[in-house]
Specification:
This protein is α/β, with parallel strands linked by helices. Helix content is 44%, strand content 17%.
């Protein structure tokens, strides 16, 4: 039995799709934890066991983890949280107790690059995510943290600006190359680990994408795929603070995001080398063709 959290999200939804396609081969039973089962397609609900509620709730995870062999763990967004600890470790405490109580053998979680770097302790959301990994690893389960750089899919937040003004923004230098990953590749990496389960102990599984890219690289590819000029505008941290606050984000989360972006500028994502094992297949061009272009043209 594999339990999937966030089954209607970008990563969890894609993971569920992959596992449903694989269950006939591997004979796995699937269970999902979801606040609103109505968001699951009817065909999906017919093939999975559904536990309704939040996976931060002790009673919910107690029911969901009964008989579970493996769990996919991803904390949901919470823009009004009073602290980063509330978002990550605080939300995860009930699950950690349930892992132990029900003898869950393997857990795969979504986390971030940066462990062991000089800036890891002042990287906002990443620092809190790494602390969550330590909490889960301390429970005694076999744990793999999918260590990710910036998600390519975050660009979807800027579809209106890309469509209407031909502009996207970030805080990095225009020519500085960094790793980026498509969320579909994170889901694929999670599926591989959840279906295998011959691995033991705790550790990280980096998912780095196929290449490092700069904002200028992104602009060139988007321009080519969309068939019109797209340009990059570097955003100041003050402008970013105002933009995040304008979305209704709490002060603690805004500061955590700013700290994370400063740490990325200082090399947070640069310490893990890309190898055949840490690379993932989806190129930025493929993502633009398959995801961004349809979103812009919708």
């Amino acid at each position: 039995m594999i339990v999937i959290t966030t089954p209607t999200g970008q990563i969890g939804g894609r993971l569920l799709e992959i596992l449903l396609n694989e269950t006939r081969t591997h004979g796995e039973e699937l269970r999902v934890i979801v606040r609103d089962p109505g968001k699951l397609p009817d065909a999906v609900r017919a093939r999975v066991d559904v536990v309704t509620g939040s996976h931060g709730d002790a009673d919910v995870v107690d029911r969901a983890f009964t008989g579970a062999d493996a769990v996919f763990w991803l904390v949901p967004s919470n823009s009004q949280a009073p602290s980063l600890d509330t978002v990550y470790s605080g939300f995860t405490h009930a699950a950690v107790k349930a892992f132990t109580a029900h003898g869950v053998g393997h857990v795969v979680g979504v986390s971030a690059l940066g462990r062991g770097t000089p800036v890891a302790g002042r990287a906002g959301h990443v620092t809190a995510s790494l602390a969550m990994d330590d909490l889960i690893a301390g429970s005694g389960v076999a744990y793999r943290a999918l260590a990710n750089p910036t998600f390519i899919d975050n660009l979807l937040w800027q579809v209106p600006s890309i469509r209407d003004h031909g502009v996207f923004t970030d805080t990095g230098e225009a020519d500085r190359k960094t790793p980026m990953v498509a969320t579909c590749d994170i889901a694929a990496a999670a599926a591989e680990l959840l279906l295998d389960r011959t691995w033991t102990g705790t550790g990280e599984a980096p998912v780095l994408g196929p290449e490092d890219l700069s904002p200028d690289d992104l602009a060139r590819t988007m321009s080519d795929v969309l068939g019109r000029p797209i340009r990059y505008e570097r955003q100041t941290f003050d402008d970013l603070r105002q933009a995040l606050a304008g979305r209704g984000m709490s002060d603690a989360l805004v500061q955590g995001y700013l700290d994370m972006m400063r740490a990325k500028a200082d090399g947070l994502d640069d310490a893990v080398p890309r190898t055949p094992r840490t690379a993932s297949p989806t190129s930025f061009r493929e993502w633009c063709e398959q995801v961004l272009k349809p979103a812009v043209e919708a």
